[in-house]
């Protein structure tokens, strides 16, 4: 973790004027920061993509790619979008500040820059980045844990990744808001993380589970929710984890939800989860074709278990992907 105000934090100064770069370097180095430089927007992007920049101070008016354009590019890339960007400008118009905000700038400094204001803004933004990095690290640990559970069973290799892709594709087909697409991507990765508490002989059993084993197995969504609950960024993910084994008629688990009580996002994940399980080899069955899997899902919808409208959406995605050959559909 970086420590604001120490040499652990690296600040990129992007400015085409050497005098300005030297001025910022002297102020930042005196406060204990490591400083690197870029002469224009393109150099700034290359530096941030290297993965060693904690904060960017960027002049707006530079040759080639402007500070606005470089800021937008940094904030549009998932690998760099959490790096704080402070735009330094002599522009005073409201429209210019609105433009910078729309490009994703985290803060502004007006020329001539006051040393105390500069260091206060940098310190504050780096503290926020520490908290963000902690959340990102926690999410990475959870996903890694989920993948390690998946890796114990050769039949489920790649299941979480496929689930995330299918779920996001179905959410896009339904025009769900971006935050739900993110939640479904995350849920696809960690939905079965609660299985870490289930004995391996139960998880990999080829025959029917005993009543006692079923009691254990039905706890994994609850355990998974509990494991992920400390992450506030998983607020929308938690009900997906907990409820992806419910049924519309109330016969599912762990809470026996019925009808609209069963959250839409959990229904989406359940639909693609079953589809992927049916179309891949498992210890208890051979892979079915995509068409056969859709047909079986429709039969279960008639029994009151599944959401028929989501099966329609999934079928449209499968057919589209098959025609375009853009997504590999197993089976």
Question: Per CATH, what is the topology of the largest domain?
Answer: Hypothetical protein af1432
Listing every helix as H and every strand as E from the N terminus to the C terminus, the arrangement reads EHEHEHEHEHHHHHHHHHH
Shape: elongated
Strand content: 5-15%
What would CATH call the architecture of the largest domain?
Orthogonal Bundle
Helix content: 40-55%
Largest sheet, spatial ordering of strands: 2-1-3-4-5
The poorly predicted ranges are 1-6, 326-331
**Strand pairing plus helix content: what structural class?**
alpha/beta
Q: How many DSSP H or I helices? A: 14
What's the structural domain tally? 2
Report the span from N to C terminus: 45 Å
CATH class of the largest domain: Mainly Alpha
Radius of gyration: 25 Å
CATH superfamily of the largest domain, please? Hypothetical protein af1432
What integer is the average pLDDT?
86
Biggest sheet character: 5 strands, parallel
The count of strands amounts to 5
């Amino acid at each position: 973790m970086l420590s604001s105000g120490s040499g652990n934090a690296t600040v990129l100064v992007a400015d085409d004027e050497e005098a300005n770069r030297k001025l910022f370097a002297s102020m930042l180095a005196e406060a204990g920061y490591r400083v690197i430089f870029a002469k224009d927007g393109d150099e700034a992007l290359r530096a941030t993509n290297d993965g060693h920049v904690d904060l960017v101070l960027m002049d707006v008016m530079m040759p080639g790619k402007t500070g606005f354009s470089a800021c937008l590019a940094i904030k549009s890339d998932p690998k760099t979008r959490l790096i704080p960007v402070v735009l330094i400008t002599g522009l005073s118009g409201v429209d210019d500040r609105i433009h910078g905000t729309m490009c994703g700038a985290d803060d502004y400094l007006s020329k001539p820059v006051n040393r105390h204001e500069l260091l206060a803004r940098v310190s504050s933004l780096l503290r926020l980045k520490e908290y963000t990095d902690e959340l990102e690290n926690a999410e990475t640990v959870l996903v890694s844990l989920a993948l390690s559970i998946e890796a114990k069973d050769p039949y489920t290799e790649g299941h979480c990744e496929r689930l995330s892709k299918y779920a996001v594709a179905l959410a896009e087909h339904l025009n769900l808001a971006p935050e739900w697409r993110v939640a479904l991507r995350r849920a696809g990765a960690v939905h079965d993380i609660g299985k870490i508490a289930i004995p391996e002989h139960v998880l990999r059993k080829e025959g029917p589970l005993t009543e006692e084993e079923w009691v254990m197995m039905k706890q994994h969504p609850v355990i998974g929710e509990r494991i992920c609950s400390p992450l506030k960024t998983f607020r929308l993910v938690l009900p997906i984890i907990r409820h992806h084994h419910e049924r519309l008629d109330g016969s599912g688990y762990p809470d026996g939800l019925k009808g609209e009580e069963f959250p839409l996002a959990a229904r989406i994940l359940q639909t693609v989860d079953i589809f992927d399980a049916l179309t891949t080899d498992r210890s208890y069955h051979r892979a079915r074709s995509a068409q056969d899997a859709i047909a079986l899902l429709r039969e279960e919808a008639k029994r009151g278990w599944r959401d028929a409208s989501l099966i329609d959406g999934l079928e449209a995605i499968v057919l589209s992907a098959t025609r375009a050959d853009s997504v590999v559909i197993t089976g």
